[in-house]
Design goal:
Layout: H1 3-9, E1 30-35, E2 47-50, E3 57-62, H2 70-79
Antiparallel strand pairs: 1-3, 2-3
Length: 82
């Protein structure tokens, strides 16, 4: 985790950041986040789903052009790799 990413997320600088592919190919432009309450996106840029755990939700951002993905760019910026 970069210093900027740590400031943005509240995590400690140097925290390892790990990415996985789930059932999508790595680099597909899919980003997931688990949250504790529903968060509706009026611009419909993210999808909202029930989580497997009670009282949890997850949001998903996806693009069909991962190399141009703003989601991928944000993850890269927060990890400090750019």
């Amino acid at each position: 985790m970069s210093v900027r990413g740590a400031q943005e997320t509240g995590l400690s600088p140097g925290t390892p950041v790990v990415a996985g592919a789930g059932d999508q190919a790595a680099g597909s432009g899919v980003v997931f986040a688990a949250i504790d309450r529903p968060a509706l996106d009026p611009r419909v840029e993210f999808h909202l789903f029930c989580h497997a755990l009670p009282e949890r939700w997850h949001v998903m951002g996806v693009t069909q052009a991962a190399g141009l993905s703003p989601c991928a760019g944000l993850a890269i910026d927060l990890a400090g790799s750019r």
